[in-house]
Design a protein that fits this description.
single chain; 5 strands; alpha/beta; five-stranded mixed sheet
Length: about 170
C-alpha cells in the first residue's frame, strides 16, 4: 500500500525558543522567593552542554541562609547566591565552552559576564533586561563589547510553552 504524504508540523519551537525554554524551565528549580533565573549553554552543534539556576552553593542550607533583599549585606541573599550563568558554567559537561552560546532569562551581571568571557562563550541571548540601567549591567556590556561577545535580546516566536507531565506521547 502506498504511503500517504504528510506535511511536517509547522508549530514546532525555533532553536532560540527551545533553548530559552530550557533556561526558563531550569529557573523553576530556584528557591529564591523574588527572582528565578535560569541559563542554558549550547555548543555549535546545538547540543546543550550546561544548565543552571540561581541558588545557594552546594552544602549551604537554603533554610538557614537569608533570602532577604534589603538590610545589611551579610543579612541578604546577595553574598551567598550563585547566579544561573555561573551555575550553568560550573554544571557544564567537561570540555571546552569556547564558541558556545548562553541563553539566560536575565541579562548577566558583571560577575557572570567575567565568567562568560573567561570560558570563551561567544554569544549571550537573554529574555529580560530589567536591570539595564544598573552599574553592574553597564559594566557587563562594556566588558562584552571589549571582548567581542555578541549579546541580543530574544523576541520569542512562541509566547507560551506548555508542559504536561502526565501527557501520553
Amino acid at each position: 500500500m502506498p504511503q500517504t504524504a504528510t506535511a511536517k508540523r509547522s508549530d514546532y519551537l525555533s532553536w532560540d525558543d527551545y533553548f530559552m525554554s530550557v533556561a526558563l524551565l531550569s529557573a523553576q528549580r530556584s528557591k529564591d522567593p523574588n527572582t528565578q533565573v535560569g541559563a542554558c549553554i549550547v555548543n555549535g552543534q546545538k547540543r546543550i552542554v550546561g544548565v543552571g539556576y540561581n541558588g545557594f552553593p552546594t552544602g549551604c542550607s537554603d533554610d538557614t541562609l537569608p533570602w532577604c533583599r534589603d538590610g545589611d549585606l551579610y543579612d541578604t541573599k546577595y553574598p551567598y547566591v550563585c547566579h544561573a550563568e555561573l551555575n550553568a558554567v560550573l554544571n557544564s559537561s567537561p570540555g571546552n565552552l569556547t564558541g558556545c552560546i548562553i541563553y539566560s532569562a536575565l541579562f548577566p551581571c558583571n560577575e557572570c559576564a567575567k565568567v562568560i568571557i573567561q570560558v570563551g562563550i561567544r554569544e549571550v541571548i537573554y529574555l529580560s533586561d530589567k536591570y539595564a540601567d544598573t552599574d553592574s549591567v553597564r559594566a557587563s556590556r562594556r566588558m562584552f563589547d571589549q571582548a567581542g561577545i555578541v549579546s541580543r535580546q530574544l523576541t520569542p516566536k512562541t509566547s507560551v510553552v506548555t508542559l504536561n507531565l502526565e501527557q501520553d506521547v
